[in-house]
Amino acid sequence: MTSPVPPGIASPDEIETRLGTLKFFDGFPDGPSVEKLFDNLDFQRAVQAYLLGLAPVSQVANRKGILKVGPANRTVPIFEQMMTPKSIFLTPNNNTPYTWFWLDLRNGPLVLEIPPKVLGLIDDMWYRFVTDLGIMGPDKGLGGKYLLLPPGYTGEMPEGYFIVRLETFSLWAAWRTFLENGDPKPGVAMVRKYTRIYPLSQAANPPALNFVNVSDRDFCTVAPADYTFWEYLNQVVQEEPIESVDPVTLGFYASVGIRKGKPFAPDTRMKRILTEAAAVGDATARAIAYRWRLPEGFFYPNSAWRTGFLGGYKFEENGALILDAHTFFFFYATGITPAMDSKMIGMGSQYMAAFIDSRGNPLDGGKNYRLHLPPNIPVKDFWSVILYDNQTRSMLQTGQKWPAVSSQSKGLLVNGDMSVDIYFGPRAPAGKENNWIQTIPGKGWTTLLRLYGPLEPWFDKTWRPGEIELHQ
Question: Is 99 within 8 Å of 78 (Cβ atoms)?
Answer without folding.
Answer: yes
